[in-house]
From TrEMBL, chains B, C:
Protein name per the record: 1,2-phenylacetyl-CoA epoxidase, subunit C
SUPFAM superfamilies linked: Ferritin-like
GO cellular component, one term: cytosol
Gene giving rise to this polypeptide: paaC
GO biological process assignments: phenylacetate catabolic process
Organism: Tepidimonas charontis
Length: 312, 266, 266, 312
């Protein structure tokens, strides 16, 4: 009880919990779940954008996209490492993903259907992710907070690149502008849902707030995102697909329509348009790569044995 | 030789080098997100980015010499297969031999073996090209050399690891080298393109690099406990524009968006 | 309804039917020469030829109504993915679920299950369309019905054979149906396109065909000792132009030669 | 010896040997080898043209090509059946192909590199095949002769279709004409080599002539092909890539240059540009299809057992 009080005091004083520190088991489990979900999201998130690497319409954009998808994989690595400081192995976490027990961000279960999707994912999906993640840079668990600082920096860069891609397309041919609008229409509502269920229906939030893992509510973040994005859409010259979207001078915020939560939960629960493809691809990649991982392990073992014999 | 004729020689030689880099980048980029382990997925993507960077510099210089509306993108996206000057080795799918339309799983061993065989060539080639009479090419070579050295070191380490790993990884690496080795014969044949570039002091006679390449290959394969297969039979001629059935598929995919919107800026 | 508006309705409906036939023909044609046994390779190609023939008749009629420079080939080769009106089921690669750019082996079981599910729909659909108010469509339906009956009989026999074959063939067929069944939900949703066609007496309300389809599917799966998986979750909307990640790859390959030579006659 | 004399007499009188007739073992073996090679060639020959089915530039051409490749598969079926009348199973023959012990026509070890290759294969490759095969319609072995009559009829149809495809392209854009010329340049010499080594170097011919399996020599057939093709090339407006090609009024034939026999033998012996891809594809298709064949066999067995039980 002493330890618990000291732990909570540290958090309340905005201090950081480090791997060697005592922490409640539930705090540890919550963090493992959250960090690994986040790591899985980065890795699965390589697939929808990876879909356009071989077809990028200019070499510069191909290089930017390739580097971006690589960054996502890199984020996956930091986050798996952060999770490992909590006493779990990456192999266990991956096994949880592939067996379907662990989740990843549901946004990656929607298809990328034209080149503008690459820009819209940068602008809106990464934009929403940053909004979610900035508070995590002040998360009470040190390794996670530090990973998030680095990740947020890179994500902001991706967001600007995505927006710039769209600006270029909006200055182009009518077909290009049409592609951008089509992509915005398909992604807008999915991005609003990324902030999670309304506060009234959110399960984990309260405890997470107390533990300094979550600092701002879903609905507050969603509102911030809408307020930040509408002016950007105007500059871009696209229409956000929500007839109820309107500035509310009394609230000092934009009002917006109702999210289709049935669709959201259906996708979260495995029945979105691409859930099976995303997971099937990860499983196949893991299985096809088994001989490589086993070969490398066998070689390392042989090397150790040889070194051992020489030493003897 | 007139200035215009020299320009043509340099342009063709730059395209040969640039096409090699781009076509291999395109093949390797197919692994992005589906590699056997995250660290190696990222490492391969790193190398792909290097190759893409090399291709862009080489095309930019070719486009500058060509003048008119030529850009790195017109060269990458609006030439058909017979205009490409890359080695056939680099356009093959990452799989054991099969026809272009018979789809199948990719094979990491083939990717690795190919990257090894190619970077073992490019290290001495870029080294030699540092003294090219065409100064912009010499500058690109100096930059690319550092990258190629890293690619070679990385690929060699993995060839050793998997050649001297499990029985399965050994067999797969051997099968990959058995499949690819005959395609390396193209490295050593003289082509009109290279001959002219050598005459102009711009390029390098490939056959001069064979001893270095042989030594690298022999040393790595030996350490990997792999047998060096013979390279015989048909000698590919991709650098003269005669390709395999695979390149046209690769280009159709790579170029489809750009060609659907001619004149668009991206 | 004005004549022009009716024309648009008929054209869209013809394109929906034609795109279904063409896209499935394109997928099935990937097996030509690499099927599991020569007789079945040829049998599948026969059916592919039937589908291609149907697509051509439907496009020809659509082009006639459209007028101008439209031909069966402008409709097949110069429309982009969002203009295609085929069911998503038909554009999927012949494999268990994976993303479009992750290449892998084709799976005959998926091809077979898809051909079964689709032809079980097309038999009652063509039957009903024999009385379409648009006479040319009624004529195409009468011809296509004979073909679809043969396709259904052939696919059913093989579903039974492999469902009730070895343990492996049973598992593979079950996995194929598990994968594909949710996509059949698109058959039964009403779309603006179909709604207008029904209003005009030209098309058929798909949901009316579901009892017949259910009976066919239940009977065959039962004989095949296969479990009928539930069809739930996301309902694809290919017939409204919203496709999967796979269609743009399929079209890039199919259209690449035609688009590289706009205006050429073949 | 009596039987042998009767056998030879029948052949000399231009009669047909049928499956139930007595025949020398060497005759049987020679026919099995030749017919199965021919069957394998049809099946492997599906691959180079199959390469363009998904990319055919018009729906009409796609249908024609698909039907043609299907016909080749059909020819493979007749020929395997004809071989089976000699007391060998198709499974044995396929095993010989996949293990590399049986050969197939070396022409299929060259790549098809542009759409015009489809036309040139019809015009020149099928044209050369027909020239080789017409005499086989009078072959002494009845089932083979009858199969060849049907095959030759279909091949002539393919040849006309191929030529017509090329005529259409030659009336088209400069790029289309260039594609045709490029394809002709790549295939011409390979087609001349299809008639086999010069008579002076041909091994099996003499015995085959006596047995009524071969009726015209390699060089005679090659000359016939050149004489027939040169005027067609002129009508088409393409240049055959042989500077020595010239009408010789004294011989009443076209003279032509020297075939590269080294390259020919290299390809026959497994080292052509596509040998490994062709065979690798057949092996993979056979292996990937094993579960289908086994499933069908298992089902047939179950059906028999059920019928048996009901009868009992």
């Amino acid at each position: 009880a002493d330890k618990l009080a000291a732990f909570q005091a540290r958090i309340d004083a905005d201090g950081r919990i480090e791997p060697q520190d005592w922490m409640p088991e539930a705090y540890r489990r919550t963090l493992i779940r959250q960090i690994s979900q986040h790591a899985h999201s980065e890795v699965v998130g390589m697939l929808p954008e990876g879909n356009w690497i071989t077809r990028a319409p200019s070499l510069k954009r191909k290089a930017i996209l390739l580097a971006k998808v690589q960054d996502e994989g890199g984020h996956g690595l930091y986050l798996y490492s952060a999770a490992e400081t909590l006493g779990v192995t990456r192999a266990e976490l991956i096994e949880q993903l592939l067996s379907g027990r662990a989740k990843y961000s549901s946004i990656f279960n929607y298809p990328t259907l034209n080149w503008a999707d690459v820009g819209v994912i940068g602008w809106l999906v990464d934009g929403a992710a940053i909004m979610n993640q900035i508070p995590l840079c002040r998360c009470s668990y040190g390794p996670y907070a530090r990973a998030m600082i680095r990740i947020c920096k890179e994500e902001s860069f991706h967001q600007r690149q995505g927006y710039e891609l769209l600006l270029t397309m909006m200055r182009g041919t009518p077909e290009q502008r049409q592609m951008v609008q089509d992509a915005v229409n398909r992604w807008w509502w999915k991005c609003l849902a990324m902030f999670g269920p309304p506060d009234s229906a959110s399960v984990h939030s309260e405890q997470s707030m107390r533990w300094g893992i979550k600092r701002i509510s879903n609905d507050e973040l969603r509102q911030k995102f809408v307020d930040a994005t509408v002016p950007q859409a105007e500059v871009l010259g696209v229409t956000l697909p929500d007839p109820k979207l309107k500035w509310n001078p009394e609230r000092g915020h934009y009002d917006f329509g109702e999210i289709d939560w049935d669709e959201f939960w259906q996708t979260v629960n495995g029945h979105g348009p691409c859930n099976k493809e995303r997971l099937g691809t990860r499983i196949k990649a893991h299985r096809d790569g088994a001989w490589v991982r086993e070969g490398a392990l066998a070689h390392a073992r042989k090397q150790r044995e040889r070194a051992h014999k020489q030493a003897a | 030789m007139s200035a215009v004729a020299t320009d043509t020689v340099v342009i063709d030689y730059l395209l040969h080098l640039g096409d090699n880099a781009l076509v291999l980048a395109q093949r390797n980029s197919q692994w992005c997100g589906v590699g056997p382990v995250l660290e190696e997925d990222l490492a391969l993507t790193n190398q792909t980015l290097d190759l893409l960077g090399q291709a862009r510099l080489l095309y930019q210089e070719a486009a500058r010499l060509q003048g008119g509306d030529a850009t790195e993108d017109t060269l990458a996206y609006f030439r058909d297969a017979p205009a490409f000057r890359n080695y056939v080795l680099l356009e093959l799918p990452a799989s054991l031999p099969r026809v272009g339309y018979a789809q199948g799983d990719m094979d990491w061993g083939v990717t690795l073996a190919r990257n090894f065989l190619y970077s073992a060539l490019m290290v001495p080639l870029w080294e030699a090209l540092q003294t090219s009479a065409h100064a912009p090419l010499a500058a690109i070579a100096a930059k690319s050399l550092k990258e190629a050295r890293y690619h070679l070191r990385h690929a060699s380490e993995w060839v050793v690891r998997l050649g001297d790993g499990t029985e399965e990884s050994h067999q797969r690496m051997q099968a990959a080298f058995d499949h690819l080795m005959p395609y390396t014969q193209e490295f050593w044949t003289d082509s009109a393109l290279e001959h002219a570039a050598v005459q102009a002091g711009v390029g390098v006679a490939p056959v001069a690099l064979k001893p270095v390449w042989d030594a690298t290959v022999d040393a790595t394969l030996e350490e990997a406990t792999l047998h060096r297969p013979s390279a015989e039979g048909y000698v590919p001629q991709g650098k003269t524009g005669l390709h395999s059935e695979h390149l046209s598929y690769l280009l159709a995919e790579m170029q489809c968006v750009a060609r659907a919107h001619p004149g668009a800026v991206w």
